[in-house]
Design a protein that fits this description.
Keywords: DNA-binding. This protein has 2 domains: 60 residues, lambda repressor-like DNA-binding domains (434 Repressor (Amino-terminal Domain), Orthogonal Bundle), CATH 1.10.260; 110 residues, Jelly Rolls (Sandwich). Helices cover 24% and strands 27% of the residues.
Length: 192
Amino acid sequence: MQNFDVGQRLREMRQDASLSQRQLAEASGVPHGQISMIETNRSSPSVSSLRKILGGLNVSMSEFFEPDAPDTQSVFFKPQDLRDLTTRLYSTLDDPRGKITLQQIGDAKAHNLQILYERYEPGADTGEQMLEHVSHEGGVVIAGEIEVTVGEETAILKAGDSFLFESTAPHRFRNIGDCEAIVVSACTPPYL
């Protein structure tokens, strides 16, 4: 995969929205310096940080990473048809440790339902800044183990275990194990 310049893409989208870095930071609820650090590629955002910033632009991760993805009325999807929401965050890394791969089935906005195939390499973490959004989500661990924190509760889920919660509760996903964790999840309304 060729390198994807996250900073340049964010800068272009911010400028297209006629926002200054400070205005985007205020709309996103992140420090002004974080926008500058990402745009100049001095910092790589976590999944949770990037999603929060994109929320200030009212843009999904699918629109950020795959702006030209065709709208499709397909009912069935092959692995190569899934929309890649994260791999480009890691396109400059040589080491897969800590990598999160989130692939979306179809057009989540059109169905008001986001279904994800998630892969967490050892050390992967959605970020210290917990995710919070107006939604409901649930999922099933298919392989490996994943630590899930929702509010004050934390559990290590193994293959066959599942979760379901209101997404306004602060939450985080981390692979603290030594092998890949795979999760299939759903979120409504779509968040990423």
